[in-house]
Amino acid sequence: MPKPVDVPYLKPVPDASPDDARGAGTHDANAVAQRRAEEALIVDVDGFEGPLDLLLTLARTQKVDLMKISVLHLAEQYLVFVEQARKLRIELAADYLVMAAWLAFLKSRLLLPPDPEAEGPSAEEMAAHLAFQLERLDAMRQVAARLMGRDRLGLNRFQRGAPETVSRKRRTEWQAGLIDLMRAYARLKTRDEFRPYAFDRRDIYSMEQALDRLRQLVGFAGDWTDLSDFLPDGWDVHGSRRRSATAATFAASLELARQGTLEIRQDDTFSPITIRRKPT
Amino acid sequence: MTDQFPDSDPAAPDFPPPPIEQQQRMVEAILFAAATPVSVRELADRLPHGCDPAEAIRGLRSLYQGRGVTLERIGDGYAFRTAADLGFLMQTETVEQRKLSRAAIETLAIIAYHQPVTRTEIEEIRGVAVSRGTLDQLIELEWVRMGRRRMTPGRPATFVVTETFLDHFGLESARDLPGLSELRAAGLLESRPPTETGIPMAEPDDEDEGDPGIPAEDLFEDE
Amino acid sequence: MTDQFPDSDPAAPDFPPPPIEQQQRMVEAILFAAATPVSVRELADRLPHGCDPAEAIRGLRSLYQGRGVTLERIGDGYAFRTAADLGFLMQTETVEQRKLSRAAIETLAIIAYHQPVTRTEIEEIRGVAVSRGTLDQLIELEWVRMGRRRMTPGRPATFVVTETFLDHFGLESARDLPGLSELRAAGLLESRPPTETGIPMAEPDDEDEGDPGIPAEDLFEDE
């Protein structure tokens, strides 16, 4: 099988290609390379980024400014390429075939005299647009190369290797208004007002205390004894304490008399009250 | 080092701003400390009230002219970068660059020169579908981001290049892209409706898979 | 950017070293891009043959003298650092506004109404111990300061409110603080205890506690 000289882009796949389109299931690189060398012709269509890229590459072989490209010739080149691929039983991707069909159509339109009745763009307009597209793609390729060739950060230009981080400090601003202050003070001052009511028992001698004391003492008091003698120590001097103790003890004596434990006697109004254990 | 600026508290708007030499020192310190460009606005926020960071930058740029590090304008911001001619000294700092695929490089160039540009427009220029991975890679590098949606049927997303892109390629702005004016003059940046002339577009139905010609593992060839 | 040094290849020992200004640029760039301080020895390894990094550093150090960044010696190496007096630029402050704690506001109120007042007196009024932290916070806020020591056994310290306090609360003097009756009139003492129970109100007849009418002469005994 002769190598197609006029279609330079149909070329053997490089040995290193990982993409084993032919389905050789072996990983033995030598065996693959050998078999490929024997078959000799595998189209490197994958090397093209689509039909437009292929067209651009083919256009370059015309060695003219893309603006002056012969679209007719280009269409023919493309169709030869596709024909060659087909002969070599190479499966081209669908978009390559679609492009081929479109270029065959364009070629026929370019060769025929213009049909004034035909709708849509003329063959020349279609050809011009294709040339524009090729030129634009070519231009993008060139500026992409210029872009990649610039002084790039991390390759030619470098940023500070030890950037100093900006620390974010949090400052707390404490808020309090006059109203908060007054409210707090009001809260403090009124808290006292709500303290549970508690009677001051310091100078109070309760009837329970008097009853307990009388019950204990009256057992020994067989004779009439002045009530004031039953007042507890410390409660018989100071006025208010004495009053409280006297009242409580008197009340307790009444209670015990009611229960029949003791007897009460008062000889006269305001005369001393005396009590004794009720004789049994 | 022992200078103290009682008026350097940004929270004290009533003090006069420090003298321009001090402002210059402050801007210098902030820009030196930052790895990424700092905008004039950010500088103003961090400097004491009343400072003129733009003026300080002008002074600094001329001061650093021709030095080992230079003050570069990058988009809205400024950053110190080592002089490009000294890159050869930086073997230890050189960042391993993942080699971009041809598809990625072309797509990047198209976005830079045609921005804002939709995916369909990119495909129309390249004549092949743009694989999801290609755009993802550019977005991951933070060189490309989504722009505003186009107000056309389907409201397609557009893509634009970023400040990181400008920084990486040492561009002050997207207007400084090499050859931009020539391309524009040649009419090569105008978008023409692709349907007008009926040139077939390789447009696979499966948008996300797209581009059968670029296997994903091809995206990052080893350097 | 356009400078080229044919003699700058470290692998070419036969070329004469670049002029000192170039060496300075190189050292400047290396130190700028380095992640850690670089020693003179490392510099010599990275610079073209025959360079004198120590001399270049001397030149750079004087060049950066008094600037926003300075070239500092750190251990064996050299590195650029923000000038010490500009450290404040490397911080951004976010202000968080928070309400004063109940303990703090109560303590403050007591000091304001009863100043000069000892800690023990504050505790008596609040009915709970005053934590050191609460007083410290008020002192740190500059709302409270120590007054004269009380001339009583133990000579306890007293606390008074400050000018800053008056400023913050919009008072001309602590005498302007409203009394209890005014607080009540202002509706701040809404929960008035039922009077029919005959429970005595905290009223002025109690010498220690009483104070809607703080005796004026008590207020600024200290001033």
Q: What does this entry show, briefly?
A:
The complex is a heterotrimer, with one copy of chain A (280 residues) and two copies of chain B (223 residues). Chain A has 280 residues and is mainly alpha-helical.
Shape of chain A: rod-shaped
Number of strands of chain A: 4
The number of helices of chain A is 8
| Uncertain stretches of chain B | 1-12, 204-223
Mean pLDDT of chain B: 82
Strand order of the largest sheet of chain B: 1-3-2
- The CATH superfamily name of the largest domain in chain B is Winged helix-like DNA-binding domain superfamily/Winged helix DNA-binding domain
Pfam families (chain A): SMC_ScpA
Region (Disordered) (chain A): 1-30
InterPro entries (chain A): ScpA
Organism (chain A): Paracoccus homiensis
Give a structural overview:
The complex is a heterotrimer, with one copy of chain A (280 residues) and two copies of chain B (223 residues). Among the domains of chain A are: 40-113 and 122-146, no CATH class; 207-277, Arc Repressor Mutant, subunit A. Chain A has a three-stranded antiparallel beta sheet with strand order 2-4-3, covered by helices on one side. Chain A has helices at 29-39, 51-60, 71-87, 94-111, 123-148, 178-191, 207-218, 239-258; strands at residues 167-175, 225-226, 262-266, 273-277. Chain A has eight helices and four strands, in the order H-H-H-H-H-E-H-H-E-H-E-E. Chain B is built from eight helices and eight strands. Chain B has a three-stranded antiparallel beta sheet. A three-stranded antiparallel beta sheet of chain B has the order 5-7-6. Chain B is α+β, with helices and mostly antiparallel strands. Chain B starts with 19 loop residues before the first helix and ends with a strand. Chain B has two domains: 20-90, Winged helix-like DNA-binding domain superfamily/Winged helix DNA-binding domain (Arc Repressor Mutant, subunit A, Orthogonal Bundle); 99-221, Winged helix-like DNA-binding domain superfamily/Winged helix DNA-binding domain (Arc Repressor Mutant, subunit A, Orthogonal Bundle), CATH 1.10.10. Chain B has helices at 20-33, 40-46, 53-63, 102-114, 119-126, 132-140, 163-169, 180-185; strands spanning 38-39, 69-74, 77-82, 99-100, 117-118, 144-146, 158-161, 220-221. The chains are: A mainly alpha (280), B alpha+beta (223). Chains in contact: A-B, A-C, B-C. The interface between A and B is large, with 52 and 56 residues. Chains B, C: Keywords: Cell cycle, Cell division, Chromosome partition, Cytoplasm. Chains B, C: It holds the Pfam family SMC_ScpB. Chains B, C: Residues 1-20, 186-223 are annotated as: Disordered.
